[in-house]
Amino acid sequence: MACKQKGQANDPWVVSDYEARMWRALKQLMDTSREEATYRIRVRPTGSTSADPPQHSDSDAAQSSGTQELPQVPGENSHEACEHAWAVGNALTESLLLHTRILTDMLLPKNSKPPKTTKTPDIKLDDLPCKQSCEIDRLRIELESAYHDKGPQGRCLSPRETLNKLLAHPANIRTSRHDYTSLFESLKPKLDPLINKTYEGQGKD
Count of H helices and E strands in the chain? Predict the structure, then answer.
């Protein structure tokens, strides 16, 4: 249970600044540590089953996780190296997607989702003392459209539904792997400039 500490003032900028910094840092880290810009989650390392431990070399482990080869820890065997590379690759992707989800929910227009009957409402861009502009409004509308886009004829999960069902909840439609690359690439061009404009002149960069 999370309780508010006495004497600790609520500052939406602290939360929003953290989310923006983490998103930027993780995006940059993944862009520089991967040979190709892919954002995949694998429930188990490639080639492994619930009954048989994965049999990979260290380079195979790095390739299957989408990251560059990690330095082997002294005493670490190839199976452990494979597990560690797989875990780090998944953790980076999941963390970036989680911050993407939180930032997007913060930056969407306030009426984008039905109001919640809760005593701890979510922080929204409208709650921050930042400069508003027509360009920010346009970017928010574009982000909202991309976030709720269900594809041709509305037959696909929207990015919001995908993150909620396949990442944030143990939904029974989850599979052994999922590639989030197209989802992230659809939101990144909207999030990047919106974050820049939101923090412009606020000393938050």
Answer: 6, 2
Whole-number Å distance between alpha carbons of 47 and 49? 7
Instruction: List phi, psi (to 5°) of 42.
Output: -120, 130
Name the nearest CA neighbour of 200 among 108, 101, 100, 129: 129
Cα 74–Cα 80–Cα 86 angle in degrees, nearest 5: 120
Rounded-to-integer distance, Cα 182 and Cα 40, Å: 10
Residue type, 197: K
Alpha carbon distance 195, 169 (integer Å): 27
For 10-149, strand residue ranges (E) read 40-42
Give 3-state DSSP helix, strand, coil % of the chain, rounded to 5: 55, 5, 45
40-83: pLDDT as tens digits: 888 776 555 443 443 333 333 333 444 444 455 555 678 788 88
Given the structure tokens 């005593």, which residue do they identify? Answer: 119
Residue 117 token pair: 């009957």
